[in-house]
Design brief:
Blueprint (H helix, E strand, L loop, with lengths): L168 E2 L7 E2 L27 E6 L8 E4 L4 E5 L19 E2 L5 E2 L5 E5 L5 E3 L10 E4 L5 E4 L9 E4 L9 E3 L11 E4 L5 E4 L6 E5 L8 E4 L1 H5 L2 E3 L5 E3 L5 E4 L5 E5 L2 E5 L6 E4 L15 E4 L2 E2 L11 E5 L27 E5 L7 E3 L11 E4 L5 E4 L2 E4 L6 E4 L4 E3 L9 E3 L11 E5 L5 E5 L18 E5 L12 E3 L7 E2 L4 E8 L10 E7 L2 E3 L2 E3 L2 E4 L1 E6 L2 E5 L10 E9 L2 E2 L3 E5 L1
Parallel strand pairs: 25-44, 39-49
Antiparallel strand pairs: 1-2, 3-37, 4-5, 4-42, 5-8, 6-7, 8-9, 10-11, 11-12, 12-13, 14-15, 15-16, 16-17, 18-19, 20-21, 21-22, 22-23, 24-26, 26-27, 27-28, 29-30, 30-33, 31-32, 33-34, 35-36, 36-37, 38-40, 40-46, 41-44, 41-47, 42-43, 45-46, 47-48, 47-49
Length: about 725
């Protein structure tokens, strides 16, 4: 094989064809059929039409670009010439998109999700380019995928080796990788990966254990206290419970039952570690009430029925004797089926209730007189009566969340607003959420997703609310005896929907459906940032005997995962937990589950009897095989009084003796909620900003203000790659 000398103007006729079109002399005519090569022709350059000016650098497979396209730009569909502007469809079977090109994220290789959002590892071509917005399920581009990080999505990294260009915020301190402050909504929110490596996983699907065989009082309303005791109450005016009020012979008169003596307990204190029960006296009826915790740790119970409607009850950690101290006729109006939302200074709004289109503003103490402020939104979202019957409502126990701008996000029935709690003024209206109704009595589930704080508290925080389940708008009217004699148990909804509350143009985004339909369930924030759906039914609504087909199977929700991989069903219980049941995350990470009484009175016959057993569910992260990877917080070497914006230290150990660093752990703060009727009021989880980790000592920064973390007691957890420690109580102010 020989090559033509450079000074030759034309190739000889025989037999001097240039192998693979290399090194053609200047001025040589364009080749046709491989006879003549143009200047700078690449190997494999075949079939350029006769008479063309410049053959594109390369087009494998013999596809033909127009020769008037210098540099191979603007090739027709089906062709790709190594240029920068390969059109959609330009890489057959998704294989050979040239380096430096992409197609708007529309043409990932086979197996990639539509829209190019979830390309699997190895799906990129030419070592450089992933479609914009792409990630690999864990928000990580494959290692070595694109040297220089030219087209790695903003939130992606590849094991700390390649980082996006023009980055500004460290993935974690000490790493060379940095991330731009970016959010898919364009709001500039801080949203780095949770971990710097793949989290630990397990095939363990949980375990159920009976913790108390007969607690005696149904758990309608529940609050975990900072002394590791739980307080719960039931109604006082619908007959006796199954436990006498102690001490024996203590039979105070019941003002809501013709002032007759009542020797039975309707409230109790429960030791979540030992299962010990001590009865607690409650005078005014807390039936379908609400509640919250004051900054000093005392429980406030608000509203209820009859005399309880305008009452406020205080259960103090320091008062001698287990009883509620009560103040009657304090609230501006009766609050029955209302929701409480703690504000930045520890005060609270007590929102809505039956025929109550307003809220009470309550200061952070017990000696007060409330201020009543109108909220027309509650009237607007009330489902009208069916014929001459009662209002269907569908907006009781509204979902309320304090958000980082100090306003309150409220969702009722099928829509939401953001309002100023000091004035009642509407700050923003959100689009209608189609599909059905989500609040009592259709009783869907909602949560504020974990709030991600930056190490210096200077970055905007992404704020997302998820709303799931419920039932169609007429489900209650079709099943409840007050509306119909021909009862129909409508299937519950199984959809989930999310909204970015502070986005410039917020819209409801369809999330992955739950594995099964659910009404009356609870939605809990877990210590590791995941969520748990538990309790409830698959058909019907809240109300006496208004549901059937209990949902026995907890569902783990992992909002950080790719669509299609966000849910995992865990092991089911055998005990139905339907109307008037509760659940709560405990300091050891277990889930306490209690209650269920879908009847007017305590009833122990039929398919869904009054349930007085207490269970504990051990979630997936309590797999015994993970024990060596579970952090243990050293109580005596950890700060337990945190100040807004100030540094604090947390010391922990690990049985595996690993010296953990950035990207290995999260530090989370859980505000334990007041739970009733499927809504965990005031529930929030903060993922704190970590400044440094040295020798398993975390230096972190307290939340910036009460708008992010209302003052009070929180459970603090160290989570190692999704495996949480036992929590300890800390106080924030």
């Amino acid at each position: 094989k020989s090559f033509i000398k450079v000074e030759s103007q034309c190739p000889p006729k025989e037999p001097t064809l240039l192998p693979e079109g290399k090194d053609c002399p200047p001025g040589a005519p364009t080749h046709s059929g491989g006879k003549d090569s143009p200047p700078e022709a690449h190997p494999g350059c075949k079939d350029c039409p006769p008479g063309g000016k410049e053959c594109p650098p390369a087009h494998p497979g013999g596809k033909e670009c127009p020769c008037e396209a210098p540099g191979g730009k603007h090739c027709p569909p089906g062709a790709h010439s190594g240029g920068k502007d390969s059109p959609p469809g330009a890489h057959p079977e998704g294989k050979d998109c040239p380096p430096g090109t992409h197609t708007g994220g529309k043409d990932c290789p086979p197996g990639a999700h539509p829209g190019g959002k979830d390309c699997p590892p190895g799906a990129h071509s030419g070592e450089k380019d992933f479609p914009p917005g792409a990630h690999t399920g864990a928000k990580e581009c494959p290692a070595g995928a694109h040297p220089g990080g030219k087209d790695c999505p903003p939130e992606a990294h590849s094991g700390g080796k390649e980082c996006p260009l023009e980055s500004s915020v460290p993935i974690f301190p000490g790493s060379k990788c940095t991330l731009p402050i970016a959010d898919p909504s364009g709001g500039g929110f801080y949203n780095p990966p949770l971990y710097g490596q793949v989290p630990l996983d397990t095939h363990f699907k949980g375990e159920w254990v009976i913790h108390n065989k007969n607690v005696g009082v149904n758990a309608m309303h529940f609050q975990l206290m900072s002394n590791n005791k739980a307080v719960w109450t039931d109604t006082t005016n619908l007959g006796p419970s199954s436990k006498e009020l102690g001490p024996k012979g203590n039979c105070p008169r019941n003002p809501d039952n013709k002032n007759e003596p009542d020797c039975y307990a309707h409230g109790l204190q429960y030791d979540v570690d030992t299962g010990e029960v001590v009865t607690a006296y409650v005078k005014t009826d807390p039936w379908c009430s609400s509640g919250h915790v004051l900054p000093n740790g005392d429980l406030v119970s608000t509203g209820g029925n009859r005399l309880g409607g305008r009452s406020v009850r205080l259960f103090s950690l320091t008062e001698p004797g287990l009883k509620f101290v009560e103040r009657e006729k304090i609230l501006g109006v009766g609050r029955w089926y209302s929701s409480n939302c703690v504000l930045e200074d520890g005060s609270a709004v007590i929102v809505g209730g039956r025929d109550a289109y307003s809220y009470d503003l309550m200061p952070p103490n017990f000696n007060f007189r409330t201020t009543v402020i109108r909220l027309p939104f509650l009237k607007q979202t009330t489902e009208p009566a069916v014929g001459k019957g009662l209002y269907v409502e569908n907006n009781l126990y509204p979902f309320t969340f304090l958000i980082p701008d100090g306003n309150v996000f409220i969702f009722a029935n099928d829509r939401a607003i953001r309002f100023n709690p000091k004035t009642g003024a509407t700050v923003q209206e959100y689009p209608v959420l189609p599909g059905g109704s989500r609040n009592y009595p259709t009783s869907g589930q909602a949560a504020l997703l974990p709030l991600r704080l930056s190490p210096d508290n200077s970055k905007p925080i992404p704020v997302e609310v998820v709303v799931c389940g419920g039932n169609k708008k007429d489900a209650f009217a079709n099943v409840d005896a007050a509306y119909t004699k021909n009862r129909v148990f409508s299937p519950a909804l199984s959809d989930c929907n999310r909204i970015k509350v502070l986005a410039e143009n917020p819209v409801w985004e369809k999330d992955q459906d739950m594995p099964s339909p659910r009404t009356m369930g609870d939605l809990l924030l877990l210590p590791n940032g995941q969520l748990l759906f538990i309790n409830g039914a698959k058909k019907g609504t809240s109300g006496w005997e208004d549901a059937e087909d209990p949902n026995l199977t907890p569902a783990l929700f992992m909002p950080e995962n790719s669509m299609g991989m966000r849910f995992k069903e865990l092991n089911p219980t055998t005990i139905p937990r339907m109307y008037h049941s509760i659940s709560s995350v405990l300091p050891d990470g277990k889930i306490l589950v209690a209650g269920s009484n879908p009847h007017q009175f305590y009833t122990f016959k039929g398919p869904y009897p009054t349930e007085l057993r207490v269970e504990k569910f051990h979630p997936h992260y309590l797999d015994p095989k993970l024990n060596k990877e579970r952090p243990v917080i050293k109580d005596d070497a950890t700060d337990k009084v945190l100040k807004y914006g100030k540094k604090f230290k947390v010391t922990f150990t690990l049985k595996s003796n690993k010296n953990l660093g950035y990207g290995d752990v999260l530090l989370t703060l859980l505000y334990p909620p007041f739970t009733t009727h499927g809504f965990s009021q005031n529930q929030r989880l903060l993922i704190t900003g970590v400044e440094s980790i040295e020798n398993n000592v975390i230096t972190a920064v307290g939340p910036p203000s009460g708008k992010i973390a209302p003052p009070g007691y929180y459970l603090m957890f160290v989570t190692h790659l999704n495996v949480p420690s036992r929590g300890i109580w800390v106080h924030i102010d």
